[in-house]
Amino acid sequence: MRLTLLTLTALATPTFAFAATDCGNPPVKTAEAVYTIQTPEQFIQPAVAEPAAIVIAPEWKESPRIEAITPDANLVAQAATPVAPTFEPSAQLTAPVQAYSNLLQRRISRGEGGLNLFDYAGADAAGELSTITAYTDHLASQNPDAMIEADQIAYWANLYNALTVKVILENHPVTSIRKIKSGAFSVGPWKRDAVTVNGEVISLNTIEHDILRKRYANPSLVHYMVNCASIGCPNLSDKLWAGSTLDADREQAARDFINSPRGVKIKGNELKVSSIYDWFKEDFGGSKSATLDHFRKYAGPELKAALDAGATIDGYGYDWSLNE
Question: What is the pLDDT of residues 149-161, one digit of tens each?
């Protein structure tokens, strides 16, 4: 998880056809949204000339002549050029980012099967909704288009996850995120207006389906980054996503989920896998065989042995219980 000032500054099979989130059926196609994040520009200071060199002509009897070494004009110009904004981890975090980062460390613990659990009750009792709101407001004030691509991905995943925790605390106590409605006939809060970025009011669905899955390569890895506050979902990380370590971190998140019983449960030569691989089959190659190839890329010893022995996908499942 990454930011120079921001990034540090994501089993019963449902039968519904609504609430299209990472934890739901594929979404209806909507207009593609493009956003960007403004970060403080970092400038390299112009190069400073070396101290003047003193050259003494041996044949001279008078005072020695001093010749100053002039810096190369091209090098000075290059050094003065602003560097593209980045969101690498930094000790100089803004207060909202630092406070939210500390909250994740404080409220997330590891449960059975490698499941990360969030202490919603503790956060609610401590009034930490205000900390999360300050963080989402801080992100919303940024301009995502100023970032390089990896930082954009980290930004949107961080925003999605924080908004999800926020909506749970706004409705706490609740046993499942599906209990929170977007409308009279909806299940889940995914279609609700959640945040305004660059003047555009967007929902959780917009962030996941219209931005993260549509704008960037490797949509399969998006599913290991965003968390819908459910046991069946890939883990909510206890640290923020950051562009500088994006590839390594999300591939590790894929390994963690695929090699857990929530991702792939092994029973002989039969695999019962997360419904994510059914709902978003196209992101994993469009078929069961392509999904198995995806598993092979991240499989640990036990799953690899099962796949090598010819194990196949026999069913799908998902647990919507709150990840607490």
Answer: 999 999 999 999 9
